[in-house]
Amino acid sequence: MLEVEGLYAHHGHGPVLAGLSLRVDDGEFVAVTGNNGAGKTTLLRTISGLHKPERGRVTVLGRSPAHLAPEHLARAGVGHVPEGRRVFGSLSVTDNLAVGAVGLARDERLEVRARVYEMFPRLAERATQRAGTLSGGEQQMLAIARALMGRPRLLMLDEPSLGLAPAVTAQTLAHLRRIRTEWGCTLLLVEQDQRLVQGVADRTLRLTGGLLHPDVEVVR
Ligand SMILES: Nc1ncnc2c1ncn2[C@@H]1O[C@H](COP(=O)(O)OP(=O)(O)OP(=O)(O)O)[C@@H](O)[C@H]1O
C-alpha cells in the first residue's frame, strides 16, 4: 500500500526527515507518534506529494506522488485529512463533502454521500449548516467525511485529536476503527500523544531525530 525508503526532507534548516523508511501493508492501521515539531506533518505532506523531499522514494498504491498532481493522487485512492481540519467554513456540510468527491459521477457521489451520512448521522442532521458553525468535533468528522468522499484506499490523518476534548477524541478514534472495517481503508495516523493511539492502531512507531523507531509501550 505504502512504501517509503530513505526519505530526507528539509525546511531550510537541516533535515526534518533524515533517511526515514516505512512500510504500511494493505488493511493495516499504523500510528506514528512524535513530539511537537518532530516532522509528522512533513511526513504526511511528503507522502501526499505536497512537500518535495530532498532524497528518497515514496511509492503509494504503486505510484510516485512526486510525479502526480495532488488531485490525481486523491483519485488514485489516497485521502489526506490535514492538520487543523481545513474545512471550508462558509460552505455547507454538503458542499464540503462535494469538494471531496473527486472524479465521481453524480450517482456515485450520492451513493458515497449516503454512506458517509450513515456513518456520521450528526453531519446528516447538519447537512445545510455552514461548516464554520460546527463544533470542533463535528468539524473533525466533516474533515474525515470529506476525505471518505474520494473513496480512499489509504487514509492519512494528521493529529485529529488537536483541540478536542478526550471524549470527542475517543469517539473520533472509534470512527477510524469502523472506517477500517466498513470501508476497507488502510490507515496512517499521526498523533503527538502515544497514549491515545495505543490499543487503537495495530502498530505504533515513534518519530525522533528524523527516523522512525518501534514505540515502547507507555504505562498509564
Ligand atoms: N513551511 C515550513 N517552513 C519552515 N519550517 C517548517 C515548515 N513546516 C515545518 N517546519 C519546521 O519543520 C519541523 C517539523 O515540522 P512538522 O510540522 O512536520 O512537525 P510535526 O511533528 O507535525 O509538529 P506538530 O506536532 O507541531 O504539528 C519543525 O521544526 C517546523 O518548525
Can you walk me through this structure?
The chain has 220 residues and is of the alpha/beta class. The chain has eight helices and nine strands. The strands form two sheets. It has a six-stranded mixed beta sheet with strand order 5-6-7-3-8-9, sandwiched between helices. Helix 3 runs parallel beside helix 6 (136-148). It is globular and about 45 Å long. Bound molecules: adenosine-5'-triphosphate. Adenosine-5'-triphosphate binds next to helix 1.
Mind sketching the topology for me?
Elements: E1 2-10, E2 15-24, E3 29-33, H1 40-47, E4 55-60, H2 70-76, E5 78-81, H3 93-100, H4 106-119, H5 121-125, H6 136-148, E6 154-158, H7 166-183, E7 186-191, H8 194-197, E8 203-208, E9 211-214
Parallel strand pairs: 3-7, 3-8, 5-6, 6-7
Antiparallel strand pairs: 1-2, 1-4, 8-9
Helix pairs in contact: 3-6
The structure holds adenosine-5'-triphosphate.
Residues 11-12, 16, 34, 36-42, 83, 192 line the site of adenosine-5'-triphosphate (ATP).
Quick structural gist:
It comes from Actinoallomurus bryophytorum. The protein has 220 residues and is α/β, with parallel strands linked by helices.
Characteristic key phrases:
220 residues; alpha/beta; Rossmann fold; 35% helix; globular; binds adenosine-5'-triphosphate; AAA+_ATPase; ABC_transporter-like_CS; ATP binding; transport; ATP-binding
What is the averaged pLDDT score? 91
Look up the CATH topology of the domain at 2-87 and 151-214: Rossmann fold
The general outline is: globular
Q: Which strand order do you get reading across the main beta sheet?
A: 5-6-7-3-8-9
Radius of gyration: 17 Å
Task: Count up the helices.
Answer: 8
Report how far the terminal alpha carbons are from each other.
32 Å
Relative strand content:
25-35%
Question: What letter string, H or E per element, gives the SSE order?
Answer: EEEHEHEHHHHEHEHEE
Work out the number of β strands.
Answer: 9
